[in-house]
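Dear H.,

Thanks for agreeing to be a second pair of eyes. The structure we're designing against is below in token form, covering all 225 positions.
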């Protein structure tokens, strides 16, 4: 039922090619630690150390290829139906590579082998729920009206390896949306849509986990008046 709900919400939110977070389960630290202060200093005052503050700036990022066992695979994802099982099994590696490239802008990033475990920093893992390549033919004729659009729905979990706990967990959804036959930098047009959707998802995860990804608060100079 949870999978159906996530996929349904993803389809509804998908209209310009992009990915968005559709639901958040864990938003930062869930640990609330209270520290007692010596009575001779400030009486019986107690401070909440965490205060709901999340985590940022990891020392390293490890990526485990996302699980795709239970994902729905549909639309134009391979050159033939016979190739779909192969393409399905390679999607996690393609996405892991995209994540490594994007999250490597935050900290040194590495894709884990099947027998490896992370040592420190963050572990990023998750699962695919829907990979739908849409229809290039429909995009050619009615793409600007939403026909033939692609869809990607996935669940993401980020854990603090050193503290052995999940720090961020959320669902994401998106796709080519209202892009037509010509496509854009973020949409395939008449080409294969999943590679574009996977890259868009990796970029969105970077933006979600960065405190100020666009540096809106940056100043080129300081002027006091």
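And this is the sequence the design step returned. I haven't edited it by hand at all.
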């Amino acid at each position: 039922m949870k999978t159906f709900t996530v996929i349904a919400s993803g389809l509804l939110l998908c209209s310009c090619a992009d990915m968005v977070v559709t639901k958040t389960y864990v938003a930062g630290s869930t640990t609330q630690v209270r520290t007692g202060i010596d009575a001779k200093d400030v009486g019986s005052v107690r401070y909440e150390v965490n205060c709901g503050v999340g985590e940022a700036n990891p020392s390293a990022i490890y990526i485990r290829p996302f699980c795709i066992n239970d994902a729905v695979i549909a639309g134009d994802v391979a050159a033939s139906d016979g190739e779909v099982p192969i393409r399905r099994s390679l999607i996690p590696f393609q996405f892991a590579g995209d994540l490594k490239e994007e999250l490597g802008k935050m900290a040194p990033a590495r894709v884990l082998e099947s027998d490896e475990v992370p040592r420190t920093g963050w572990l990023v893992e998750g699962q695919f729920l829907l990979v739908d390549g849409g229809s290039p033919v429909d995009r050619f004729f009615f793409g600007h009206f939403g026909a033939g659009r692609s869809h990607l729905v996935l669940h993401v979990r980020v854990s603090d390896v050193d503290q052995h706990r999940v720090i961020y967990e959320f669902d994401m959804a998106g796709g080519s949306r209202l892009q037509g036959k010509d496509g854009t930098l973020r949409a395939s047009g008449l080409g294969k849509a999943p590679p574009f959707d996977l890259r868009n998802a990796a970029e969105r995860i970077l933006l979600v986990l960065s405190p100020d990804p666009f540096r809106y608060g940056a100043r080129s100079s300081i002027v006091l008046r």
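Two observations from my side: Residues 2-32+44-209 form a domain with the Rossmann fold fold (CATH 3.40.50). The radius of gyration is 21 Å.

Warmly,
E.
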